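Example 3.2
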Amino acid sequence: MTLPKLSSVNLWLLACAVSLAAAGCHAPGKPGPGPEVPRPSQVLDFPTLYRENCAACHGENGKNGAAIALNNPVYLAIAGTANIEKITANGVPNTAMPPFAKSAGGMLTDQQIASLVQGMERKWTISVEVRLVGTTGTPTPHYAATTLGDPTRGQKAFATYCASCHGSDGSGAHLPNNLTTGSIVDPTYLALVTDQGLRSWILAGKTEQGSHDWQSYSPDHELSDQEVTDIVAWLASHRTATPGQVYKQHP
């Protein structure tokens, strides 16, 4: 039997087919033998979720960002899983913290939010039970205020426990080693932070910068729940209706 002659085009196509088969290649659009790239909603890996959604504000390793440090075990323990999941899902109104849950307009599923929070707790919670036991027996303050604060009492507590670093009036102070602290009663700053944000800073401290948590403002006195609430009330009393610089009209 005589085989039909193959044209040069057919020979080229045949050669390509043999090469593709030998290399294990697949036609365009056909899934290959390797692992498929997961859909965004299927990503549950904590490092990936944190890097893509949290690191820009809270820091690459949970610290040294513009927002509160998430690698602070005192903050994680006092806030608790339910509160952190709620904040992550729904955001914080009137701040730079957006909602991440799909149900609130974000991009993450409930499972992804749970993975984020569980990852923070696994990675950054160490010996929390020891950290939260006051040496003088003072009960751990609540994450959120449970009573009304008194600015007058708050001013006295601030002067006693906070003035050494922030100045007696909260406008800042000069510290050793040529360090200074800025004003925490500046209306522009207070317009950018909620009462709960102020409370969280007081409770957990900025440990990445060596500042205190609720237990260590004084060597022999841990801040009580009411003292924290009163200090926040005094700080919040410095808010103004129109924060920022006054606009100057030119004649």
